[in-house]
């Protein structure tokens, strides 16, 4: 758990800014959490919140269940989108550029790999793609462990290079199926409450998706978390879980994106509950399963814009609010310094 020894001191700093108590609402909670995180292991409370090197890590992976027609697009689109990320043409590129967020794409196992080298591409492939989890385990336990290790190694490296805020995005046709299966299997919520329309499938496709996800979930009864990941997880999801676990070890906050990333965060908290202390939540997705996972994590997202794109776009859009929380904590006058008495 976060060391709370400076919590009262940090709250005093916030309360004595030149404003009514609580007048900056959720931004005050964000500032408190960030200041507490950055005070960990220090001899005094953080008097400045440092947010100088935000990093967006975008994890890509393909899913065998896509062959069942549970998405509007085939797996080939994952590679096409990864190429678009590398070329700078996607929504996440626009939002990262606009907010000075460094973007790195990680190939965790897409069906059609990118063959040309790119400075912002990391290859951490666990395979070509997962197996169809409606019919068999998505991956082996060895692949789960390797994915967790890969995610941890990436985060540790980024933190060594100065990253002080992380954001995770994802890309992978049919990955809402995997996320919904993980959520249902690990939380006990009914499959049809966890499965949504993803990229906008038809009612017939949704019915099929629920049926197929239920087949995978049916194999997960009372299995340990890592075995559930092996049964119904995704290469990009398991790598993100490892990244969340390492963020807690590195005492670095993560601004959590939408449904798939939130499910990865939930899984990480089941493996290490202290991960929750380092999570900020960017937005409320339109995907119905996201409402469940937000409740499970007792999360209050910063924005609600009806987003359902993925890619980390919600986190990139919420980042200016996190930066605003740091700015008021760092720069806003106190009643004493401003000479204002109430």
From TrEMBL:
Q: Does the keyword Glycosyltransferase apply?
A: yes
Q: What is this protein called?
A: Nicotinate-nucleotide--dimethylbenzimidazole phosphoribosyltransferase
Give the first-level EC class, as a single word: transferase
**Origin species:** Vibrio navarrensis
The record's annotation in Gene3D superfamilies points to: 1.10.1610.10, 3.40.50.10210
Q: What is its EC number?
A: 2.4.2.21
NCBIfam families according to UniProt: cobT_DBIPRT (TIGR03160), PRK00105.1 (NF000996)
What molecular function terms (GO) are annotated for this protein? nicotinate-nucleotide-dimethylbenzimidazole phosphoribosyltransferase activity
UniProt catalytic activity: 5,6-dimethylbenzimidazole + nicotinate beta-D-ribonucleotide = alpha-ribazole 5'-phosphate + nicotinate + H(+)
Tell me the active site: 311 (proton acceptor)
> What family is this protein classified in?
Belongs to the CobT family.
Q: Does the keyword Glycosyltransferase apply?
A: yes
UniProt superkingdom: Bacteria
Q: What does this protein do?
A: Catalyzes the synthesis of alpha-ribazole-5'-phosphate from nicotinate mononucleotide (NAMN) and 5,6-dimethylbenzimidazole (DMB).
A Pfam family matched in the record: DBI_PRT
Return one Gene Ontology term, BP aspect.
cobalamin biosynthetic process
Q: In which pathway does it act?
A: Nucleoside biosynthesis; alpha-ribazole biosynthesis; alpha-ribazole from 5,6-dimethylbenzimidazole: step 1/2
| Record key words, sorted | Cobalamin biosynthesis, Glycosyltransferase, Transferase
């Amino acid at each position: 758990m976060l060391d709370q020894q400076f919590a009262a001191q940090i709250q005093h700093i916030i309360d004595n800014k030149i404003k009514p108590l609580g007048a900056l609402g959720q931004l005050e909670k964000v500032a408190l959490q960030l200041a507490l995180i950055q005070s960990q292991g220090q001899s005094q409370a953080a008097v400045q919140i440092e947010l100088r090197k935000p990093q967006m890590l975008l994890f890509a992976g393909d899913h065998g269940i896509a062959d069942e027609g549970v998405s509007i697009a085939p797996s080939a689109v994952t590679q096409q989108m990864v190429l678009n990320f590398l070329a700078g043409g996607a929504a996440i590129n626009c939002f990262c550029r606009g907010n000075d967020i460094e973007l790195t794409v990680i190939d965790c196992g897409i069906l059609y790999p990118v063959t040309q080298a790119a400075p912002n591409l990391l290859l951490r492939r666990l395979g070509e793609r997962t197996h169809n989890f409606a019919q068999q385990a998505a991956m082996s336990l060895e692949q789960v462990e390797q994915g967790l290790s890969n995610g941890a190694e990436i985060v540790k490296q980024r933190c060594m290079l100065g990253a002080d805020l992380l954001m995770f995005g994802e890309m992978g046709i049919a990955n809402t199926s995997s996320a919904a299966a993980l959520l249902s299997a690990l939380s006990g919520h009914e499959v049809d409450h966890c499965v949504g329309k993803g990229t906008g499938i038809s009612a017939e496709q949704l019915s099929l998706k629920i049926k197929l996800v239920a087949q995978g979930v049916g194999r997960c009864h009372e299995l340990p978390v890592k075995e559930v990941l092996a049964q119904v997880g995704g290469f990009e999801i398991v790598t993100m879980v490892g990244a969340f676990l390492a963020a807690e070890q590195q005492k670095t906050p993560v601004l959590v994106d939408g449904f798939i990333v939130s499910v990865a965060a939930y899984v990480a908290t089941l493996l290490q509950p202290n991960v929750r202390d380092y999570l900020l939540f960017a937005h409320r997705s339109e995907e119905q399963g996201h409402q469940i996972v937000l409740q499970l994590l007792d999360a209050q997202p910063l924005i609600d814009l009806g987003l359902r794109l993925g890619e980390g776009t919600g986190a990139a859009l919420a980042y200016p609010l996190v930066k605003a929380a740091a700015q008021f904590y760092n720069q806003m006058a106190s009643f004493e310094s401003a000479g204002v008495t109430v």
